[in-house]
Structure formats: structure tokens, C-alpha cells
């Protein structure tokens, strides 16, 4: 094969994923159809080249192929990412998403930085970016994280396609819990229901201090109320805020005491 033209030269225009394989390799037979299907689904976003290591020993040697299957991504004539072994489809998708060069991700990074210094302007730009680039999952998740405390239903819609195995799955589950909290109208326990209403009001007002206080009080009244929604919602907020956030630090111990 002409590796120079088929891979290195072509990678100046589009990312090229090279699958180093051999007919006798069992794991290669598992990986091959999966990565070929992903290449078809990519619609030209990246291209796949298969390199039989038995037929191309010099290329295999040049790129230090010690075990197969070995997959390397070339961009602008260089290896920019790689993995070895027969990964399942969802892991390959994650690898592709994380490593396919995309100038739009640079723009997204700048918008997220802007959000930290100018929330209103950053949120406006982030919404516009998601409207223009709905295929960038990182952007939709980023927007959902920033909307969930005041617009939980809208936030959940942004990430409803995220399935188990996706790197954002845990985050998506926390967002869905807060949507459930925002929509909950259980009244079988009046005292507990009152705490849920207070928590919902706090969410709507983007007042997480009020929300967490009401949720933890709800946990103290009945840990299992509404399928443990107060407990799950508190955990969701802690995870979305992060362990170093002032509210997480303020309420973490109170929550632990409420549980036990």
C-alpha cells in the first residue's frame, strides 16, 4: 500500500484512522466490523484505512506495532491518538469523540471560559453554539449543566440521547433526577410534600441554598419518600456542583447526618 498518500497525505485534509490487523488475529475479527461500521456512519468526518501487518511489515515496524489490533489516528501527518485491543463500540465512540480534531471545540472552550467571567453573555453564546452545533455532545451537556438548576426540563431534553456507556451518562442521570424533582407533585405525605415544594421553588429561583436545605429536611422526615427523590436530588446537586463548591461543603455533613 502507499501509506504516504493513503494516510499521511490524506490526513492533511481529514483525520485518518488506521486499523493495523491480520487475518489470523481473533480480536481483529471482532474489532474490524465495528470500526468499519463507525467509519460508514461518520459520513466523511474521518476516514478508515486497514493495514494488514503481514503484508506491510515495514509500516508496522515504523509505527512500533507490537500487538494487534492496534488503532492509530493520524492528523496533519502525525499520530494524534491511539489504542490497542478490541474495544467495544461505545468505548471506540468515546475515543473518537475525544480525539477527532474539530476547530469548533476551540470555540466552545472559549465560550465556557467566558461563562466563568460573564455568566449572562456566556450563557447566550453557549445557547447559540448548541443551536448551530447540536452534534457536539460536550456543548449540549455543558449547556444542560448550566440550565438544570433553573430549567431542569429543558436541560434534560438536551441530553436525552445519552445512553449507558457514554462518558456523560452519570452527569445525564443527575440532570434527569433534578427534572423529576422539578415535576414531582406527590401529596401522600403532606409534611414531606411541603419540603419538596420548597425545594422546587428554590430550583425555580436558582436558589440552591434553599433547595438543599429543604431536601435535607425532607430526607430527615422520610428517607424513602417518593422513591428516595430528596436523597437522590441532593446527591445530584452535589455532583453537578462538584466537591469543592461552597454549597457542597456547607451541606455535605448535614446530609450525611440526615442519612444516618
How would you describe what is shown here?
With 260 residues, the protein is of the alpha+beta class. The protein is 62% helix and 10% strand. The chain has 13 helices and 4 strands. A 4-stranded mixed beta sheet has the order 2-1-3-4, sandwiched between helices. β3 and β4 form a beta hairpin. α11 packs antiparallel against α12 and α12 packs antiparallel against α13. The longest helix is centred in the C-terminal third of the chain and has 17 residues. The protein is elongated, with a radius of gyration of 24 Å. The model has no long low-confidence stretch (mean pLDDT 92).
Note the topology.
Blueprint: H1 3-9, E1 16-21, H2 26-41, E2 47-52, H3 57-62, E3 70-75, E4 78-84, H4 89-99, H5 103-117, H6 119-132, H7 137-147, H8 152-158, H9 169-183, H10 190-204, H11 208-221, H12 225-241, H13 246-259
Helix pairs in contact: 5-6, 6-7, 7-8, 8-9, 9-12, 10-11, 11-12, 11-13, 12-13
Quick summary:
This protein is of the alpha+beta class. The chain has helices at residues 3-9, 26-41, 57-62, 89-99, 103-117, 119-132, 137-147, 152-158, 169-183, 190-204, 208-221, 225-241, 246-259, and strands at 16-21, 47-52, 70-75, 78-84.
Please give a handful of descriptors for the protein shown:
elongated, four-stranded mixed beta sheet, about 260 residues, about 60% helix, alpha+beta
Q: Reading side by side through the largest sheet, how are the strands ordered?
A: 2-1-3-4
> Overall 3D geometry?
elongated
Radius of gyration using CA atoms only? 24 Å
Order of helices and strands: HEHEHEEHHHHHHHHHH
**Total count of strands:** 4
Helicity level, as a percent range?
55-70%
Span of the ends, CA to CA: 66 Å
- Helix tally equals 13
**Binned strand content:** 5-15%
Largest beta sheet, briefly? 4 strands, mixed
Low-confidence stretches: none
Amino acid at each position: 500500500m502507499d501509506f504516504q498518500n493513503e494516510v499521511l497525505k490524506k490526513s492533511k485534509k481529514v483525520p485518518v484512522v488506521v486499523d493495523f490487523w491480520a487475518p489470523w488475529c481473533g480480536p481483529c475479527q471482532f474489532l474490524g466490523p465495528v470500526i468499519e461500521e463507525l467509519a460508514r456512519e461518520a459520513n466523511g468526518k474521518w476516514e478508515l484505512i486497514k493495514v494488514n501487518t503481514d503484508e506491510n511489515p515495514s509500516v508496522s515496524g515504523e509505527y512500533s506495532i507490537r500487538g494487534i489490533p492496534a488503532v492509530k489516528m493520524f492528523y496533519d501527518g502525525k499520530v494524534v491518538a491511539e489504542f490497542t485491543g478490541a474495544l467495544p463500540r461505545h468505548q471506540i465512540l468515546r475515543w473518537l469523540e475525544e480525539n477527532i480534531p474539530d476547530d469548533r471545540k476551540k470555540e466552545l472552550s472559549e465560550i465556557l471560559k467566558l461563562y466563568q467571567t460573564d455568566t449572562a453573555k456566556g450563557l447566550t453564546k453557549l445557547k447559540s453554539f448548541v443551536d448551530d452545533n447540536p452534534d457536539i455532545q460536550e456543548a449540549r451537556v455543558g449547556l444542560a449543566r448550566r440550565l438544570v438548576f433553573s430549567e431542569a426540563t429543558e436541560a434534560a431534553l438536551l441530553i436525552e440521547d445519552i445512553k449507558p456507556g457514554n462518558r456523560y451518562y452519570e452527569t445525564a442521570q443527575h440532570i434527569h433526577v433534578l427534572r423529576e424533582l422539578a415535576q414531582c407533585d406527590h401529596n401522600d405525605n403532606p409534611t414531606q410534600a411541603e419540603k419538596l415544594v420548597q425545594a422546587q421553588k428554590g430550583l425555580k429561583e436558582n436558589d440552591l441554598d434553599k433547595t438543599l436545605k429543604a431536601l435535607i429536611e425532607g430526607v430527615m422526615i422520610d428517607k424513602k419518600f417518593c422513591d428516595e427523590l430528596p436523597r437522590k436530588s441532593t446527591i445530584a446537586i452535589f455532583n453537578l456542583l462538584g466537591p469543592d463548591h461552597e454549597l457542597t461543603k456547607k451541606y455535605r455533613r448535614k446530609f450525611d447526618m440526615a442519612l444516618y
